[in-house]
Amino acid sequence: MSKSSLLSAPTPLVMGVLNVTPDSFSDGAKYHHLDLAAKRALQMIEEGVDIIDIGGESTRPGASEVELDEELKRVVPLIEKIAPLGVPISIDTSKPEVMRAAINAGAHMVNDVRALQENGAIDAVAELGCPVCLMHMQGQPRTMQNNPEYIDVVEEVADFLAKRITACTAKGIDKDLICVDPGFGFGKSLAHNLSLLNNLSHLEKLGVPVLAGMSRKSMLGQITGKDVNERLAASLAVALIAMQNGAKIIRVHDVKETVDVRNVYLAALSAN
């Protein structure tokens, strides 16, 4: 898949989460070793994943920052190992040095929870000419869930993302290479998250694809009362709602099941 076509697929894409961290909220330490992570990548490909999103620093609430050298050590060897498999790879990072190293190692896209606001990040993506996902987050990972407040969460998130798109295009980043993520769970209460989910189509006015990532998140635990690894049904429910509301990329841990949901959704659409 070329850079220009990665974000222009007519049907929703399934992005599989592959965290090579010891402390991610759901799969922390599960794929911390290179061989285990590469095996999981191969499994996701067999399950029909469209993009593999590799992250070397947890951004869960309360997460500690990871030093640059450590993050590079976690992600670059894995990208080099799985890039020949031919499935597009996204690098989940806010550090410009990691962005450059990852793309040079074979990644195709940058997924930044800080929307390229770190020093040098926007310049790095402009130089690399790669697709990028800009996410909204209120606060920082360590404190973002401490009483988040909005007057109108949908409008405020849309306004922030519009400004980040403008900042990117002003630096020479092609708008066709940009997608946005409202940042479910990143400085939002359950009510904020549900409002964003219900009004996801409102973000279409930004003129770029929307990525939705709610897989296994605490919002689903609040609704169902289930622990993090017992939220498959809830994750599939919000994935379908997101697709119905216009999301073009669904970021998930459970690839096989989400691909099935996507395929049933598309079959029902085409039957009319």
Describe this structure in words.
By secondary structure, the chain is of the alpha/beta class. The chain has helices at residues 3-6, 34-46, 68-82, 96-105, 121-128, 153-170, 190-198, 218-224, 232-244, 255-270; strands at residues 13-19, 51-55, 89-92, 109-112, 132-135, 178-181, 211-212, 249-252. An eight-stranded parallel beta sheet has the order 6-5-4-3-2-1-8-7. Helix 2 crosses helix 3 (68-82), helix 3 (68-82) packs parallel to helix 4 (96-105) and helix 4 (96-105) runs parallel beside helix 5. The protein starts with a helix and ends with a helix.
Provide a quick synopsis of the model.
The protein is of the alpha/beta class and 272 residues long. Helix content is 42%, strand content 12%. The chain is globular.
How far the N terminus sits from the C terminus, by CA atoms, comes to: 29 Å
Q: State the helicity in percent bands.
A: 40-55%
Structural class: alpha/beta
Strand content: 5-15%
Which H/E pattern describes the elements? HEHEHEHEHEHEHEHHEH
Radius of gyration: 17 Å
Strand order of the largest sheet: 6-5-4-3-2-1-8-7
DSSP strand count:
8
Low-confidence stretches: none
| Average of the residue pLDDT scores | 92
